[in-house]
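User: Predict the structure for this protein chain, please.
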Amino acid sequence: MSALELSSSRHGDRTVLHVSGELDIISRAELITCLDKVIKEHGGKIILDLTGLDFMDTSALSTVVSYWKRLTAAEDGFLALAGAQYRTARVLWITGLAQRLPIYDDVAAALADT
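Assistant: Here is the predicted structure, written as structure tokens:
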């Protein structure tokens, strides 16, 4: 199992949250804490960089969807995904959320479009 690692970088008024390792029912609390901190300190324009993701389960996906709904409902907020791969985040495609959530091939594409 790969431990979850989270780091962030600022790009203007947007924050890229880099996710590496496994996002599951156990590690999702770390993701929640990190997302809440980013929102409090920098606002709700967030890109989740899933390039380093090894695995995502449905509980983690539920968390992502919850923040996506929350941030898009807020004025001037958004949550986008970048670098999601079918082999590590297949739950996005199985649930049909890959067609609903804003997903970009990489962070550069997400930054250019958001």
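The radius of gyration is 13 Å.
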